Amino acid sequence: MAEMVIGPGEESFGVPNGKLGMWTFLVMDAMTFAGFLAGYARLRWKDPLIEGTAWPNPYETFGVFGIQLTALNTFILVCSSVTMVHALAEVMRGNMKRAENWLLFTIIGGLIFLGIQGFEWTHLILDVWPYLFDPTHSVDYNLNFAATFFALTGFHGGHVSVGVIYNLVCYLAIRRGKLTADDGDFIEVAGLYWHFVDLIWILVFTFVYLI
Amino acid sequence: MAHKEAKWVANDILHLQYMVIWAVLLVLTVVEVIIPEPSLVGLEAFPRTFVILSLIGLALTKTILVAGYYMHLIGEKPAVIPIACAPFLFSVFLTIGLFPYY
Q1: What domains can be seen in chain A, in order of their start residue?
Q2: Which residues of A touch B37 (CB under 8 A)?
Q3: What is the Cα B95 distance to its own chain's centre?
Q4: Closest chain B CA to residue A75
Q5: Is pTM beyond 0.90 here?
């Protein structure tokens, strides 16, 4: 059996401990999202008990503009994944100034994503599902849709917020010279988290907005 | 860090690869938006089963591209691969367990 050495900079099974730790965390996080998505799928699968309360068509609830806006948001998140890999590549090259700039683009991408999501949430709460906050309204499948929608996109949005803060810490560390070209592993681990957030959004976008 | 320079000697190729994957992800996203609403490009509606299966297929393709190329799972140490694949296995069990049989 391979020897285990404790410490973030050390390696276990030939993999840096920091990276192994992040992957282990992502496994747990992926399972949480899997639970959300499987529960959502199970709710949708069931036939309505009351006629006329079938699961709404996302294209009718969000509107074509809403879907296209979210598709744009998906594209922005994918772009921020690209800027993140470029940041890592520049750190490995030793070009810290360029890495800093790519990381800044990544942070801006995350903030734009959150801004558009905030706009969408406001529109949905105020205009599409105003009865969510009306205690006299009876429960129907629209409420299930709204509940699973807010749970999934909210949990994901929380991850994006943490990712933006994580990237901001890395950005400031590079700017202040505390992360150097020898610390590529740190940026790689931050990148793993950011790409995971992008990967999960691809699934959420497909299952909640398109199917 | 000589070993790191050696590891990243193919940096230019990686840069190109990242942009190719980015373009593929963009195209797949556009296709995903069109499939449930083909009237956007003047096409007739597709059968529901086709829509669901193709959307799931496209989403899985995109996640594999992100995990493989952006998270560097392709070329990663063997120890990481089973860890990264574990959630997919568990998710299948979870989904099978939750779905109705009646």
Answers
A1: 63-210 (1.20.120.80)
A2: 59, 64, 67
A3: 19
A4: B26
A5: no
